[in-house]
Amino acid sequence: MLAPAYQKFKEAISNFIDSKRILTSSLQTLAYGTDASFYRLIPKIVVLVRNESEVIGIIKEAKKLDIALTFRAAGTSLSGQAISDSVLVVATHGWKRYEIFSNNEKIKLEPGIVGASANNILAPLGLKIGPDPASIGAAMIGGIVANNASGMCCGIAQNSYQTIADIRIVMNDGTVLDTADAQSVQAFKNSNAALIKEIEAMRDEIKGNEALFYRIKNKFKIKNTTGYSINALVDYEDPIEIIKHLMVGSEGTLAFISNVTLNTVTDEKYKACSLVIFNSIYDACNATALLKSSPVSAVELLDRKSIRSVEQDPLAPAYFKTLPELACALLIECRDNDQANLNQKQRQIRSAIESIPTFSEYEFTSDPVQYNFNWAARKGLLPTVGALRKNGTTVIIEDIAFPLPKLADACIALQDLFAKYQYDDAVLFGHALEGNLHFVFSQDFSTQTEIDRYENLMMELAVLVVDQFDGSLKAEHGTGRNMAPFVEKEWGNEAYRIMKRIKMIFDPKSKINPGVLINGDPKVHLKNLKPLPEADSIIDKCMECGFCEPHCVSEGLTLSPRQRIVIAREISRLESTNEDAQRLAEIKKDAVYQVDQTCATDGLCALACPVKIDTGKYVKRWRAERLENSDKKTAAYIASHMAETTAVLRVGLKIVKVFHSILGTSIMTAMSKFVHVITFGKVPKWIPEMPKGAVKINIKPAKIKPTNGHED
Amino acid sequence: MGKNKFQDADDLQLTELTHRLLVRAGFSIIYPESLDAHCCGMPFSSKGFAEANHTQSKALEADLLKVSENGKYPILYDMSPCFYHSKEEFTAPLKIVDPIQFMLDFVLPNLTIKKKKSTVTVFPVCSVKKIGKMEQLVLLSKWCAEKVTVIESNCCGFAGDRGFLVPELNDYGLRNLKDQIPANCNEGYSTSRTCEIGLEKSSGINFRSIFYLIDEVTR
Known about the structure:
heterodimer, A: alpha+beta, Uridine Diphospho-n-acetylenolpyruvylglucosamine Reductase, domain 3, Alpha-Beta Plaits, six-stranded antiparallel sheet, 42% helix, B: alpha/beta, Rossmann fold, 2 domains, EC 1.1.2.4 (chain A), FAD-linked_Oxase-like_C (chain A), D-lactate dehydrogenase (cytochrome) activity (chain A)
């Protein structure tokens, strides 16, 4: 039962939203409420919105009833910024429109477009979008922009903050601001004079505070997604420009994003890369500093443990297996639209780092096989940890950045810290060129001892990153709930006050994605941890990243593979704890259709899965476990009498065809619907496209040798 | 399964057409004994009947091993999903070949393309993606038509017979199909008969095995 305010809210929005898109069942709220982070909140209501007027309506009704809203698209973020225990508003289906204009220099995108789809649209033009998070195959524009997500190549030059041209947002009172529309801007300035004044006041205050001004400037010289993008207040004069850039990285805590216009960037035609092995992490980091001013597109660091994860690959050089413990690799990439220029770039890169000895000779390659191996080595790191981890544990990706000159010392300090807390499976890699490092490790949250271990690690990590090296605690994954307790620690009191003021002017009652980015609870990063109980060996390694979702036929109709796994885990948890029999019964009842009947078991999900889970296989096992013995006997009978079965089907389909020709399509459709319903869906529904019966293959088996010599 | 509603009495059904096509390409064909008693097992596996699947698959494997003289001759599958299923299940050293690769490697080299079609639509079924033969499918289609539209889609949702039992899954899976087919194109091709039933229903155009296309342009 919904609490009275939520019941009222549901009734109010039912007036303008199809009730099929207002989800309140135990199964659906859990399934849709799950994101890629290791936090769990279950929304009371999930609304699948299809257009802006629905969003405006929802915002207005929620405001009347004092109900908190969280907006999300793909739910691939990692820091706990896309979950809610109130109302979750999902903007994916219905939000796929785009427009390329200004001589292909700009693309306007709705929030539900997958990043990779945007790139597919732009590829024929030799263009792409700037931001390139590793999750780009599943992450959607709304989240990419709202988190200022970035990846291997875009650095801080081509992220959403730098490439945003315009934005259209819905404020917490339903007001729309479209920065591309002069009329909308003027109307907004008139109706929100106080907000504009506050923005200008903050801008001027910072300008008058030299220490703060330069602190902000400096901190954004490396990747940073801790707190708001307050560089907007030092980089821009115009309050509308400031608002536009503050929205980037706001993690849905300030307004709803209806669409974004990004400046497109060139997608170079020719690419070459080299996996260069250095004798130590020091040498690798020093080389990175030298590479900063050379024509590189990406420099990725892989520590010794990372290399170990690919050394068994047949394409890996033999010496990978015998590399010394201190070795460290850099994956160096350069790109150009001209092959001659690309060759020139390789020479420049080589001479930039010639002062630093390498462990072995290196060559650049454009050969697709070797090129792909090099990148597969880098991209396979997360899945490797994911696949090797113990069941029941989660995968954590720390995401920190350091000023480049301090990178080498920071790497060593980090390795020591992870060793101290016995995170022995931790691998270190990252976007070295941007000072951005990722530590990936598995973490158990099922016991207090383990939670304490994580808490202590985080405490020391904050000290190391902030006090020792003046780095960013979240470089590209967003603050979320995970780093919210540390924003003030990283930024200091003055900057943090500015951030709180930003939240206050856009959302004074904290009803838009509350608890994210700004949170007064110093332990919020240790609360609402997601349980990951064992459910079935096929799915136990699932990290709930959501990479499968764009590849699933039933996603949006019923459930995605990730959501099916979430439900399977919850059933398993409830069965073992016996904590809520009614909830278990409800979920199991709905699962018949949602999990089982609408899964096509096609297995395309496995192609996108970092740990290669085929959820279709799991659903087949689910079906097998729920089969009655009588069904099994029938199947065995059919299987052992296949010849008769095919004969019967052949005749059956022919008879159906005859009836169709006599009765016509509409009567057949009506009759078949009736039969389909009265047999509880067991008799197939007839459609005009049902095939005619085939003619039996009437060729006697004969052993004749092929005449054209193709037998081998 | 037999022909679709677009196909008239003169049209050959797929098994006959395949036979003719292979003979034209210079092959003699060996059929397994008791062909009617065989099935790759996938319909059972999909429904959770693991044992029935196993029995079927093993029986097929044994028979194929026999008629191919222990793997001496290549074995053509006319349906991609059946090929994929056998590929996953079989352990014997059989040279099973999917319909696309077989046409590219064995049939096209022995036939001449006489009249290319102007425009065709091709639907890559899931098994084609899973065995990584998308490029080969496009290549094969481009041999046969000037303009090839490859449908961008997840699984069509027909899923064997699920399209009859849970038709809304198929309708949902193919909700963007019609918009992708060029207005002047009324020929669709794929490599799975069951998928074609739903494709035909959602697109309103004739969806058949790509073998028909190859047969037509080489005659």
